[in-house]
């Protein structure tokens, strides 16, 4: 059977044209893809770290920031104080009453062994011609009474006589007697002298 060489020769050029056009479109597509990849690559690179950072922040649990407030600390301290009873203050020391010093009382002088003195005459007004023995004369009555008490411890009975002097002053005389004779008055003076007391024998006129 005879072949149709004319048709076959016409179909071969058309196939070549189609294959060439496909190759060109393939090259153009590859070029467009490369250009698009270069343009979109920086945006993707910049978006990826932001996406990763957002993903990390969303994945990590949110930690509350510590807040220190003076009111909360003060309220907590007051609550702690309310729960515990405040310590009792130490008792105030009681004031000690001032110690009153007792006045020193002079110890009584020990009575010395005294020779028996002659019995003194009563403290009545001495008679004329008798003698009195004056042991002391004081401007203060208290001093005269003190000497009178000391002489009583010696066994000598005395009296305090007030007299006004010529200058108007009052004197208090401590006297014992009267004694009938000067000798009796001298015995009393000797007794007083042994105890350190000076005296004076005065005749009664």
Automatic annotation (TrEMBL):
Where are the annotated segments for Disordered? 1-20, 44-130
Record's keyword annotation contains Transmembrane helix: yes
Swiss-Prot/TrEMBL GO biological process terms: cytokinetic process
Official protein name in the record: SPOR domain-containing protein
Q: Which residue ranges run through the membrane?
A: 21-41
Entry keyword Transmembrane helix: yes
Organism field: Thiorhodococcus minor
What UniProt keywords are attached to this protein's entry?
A: Membrane, Transmembrane, Transmembrane helix
Low complexity: compositionally biased ranges: 46-62
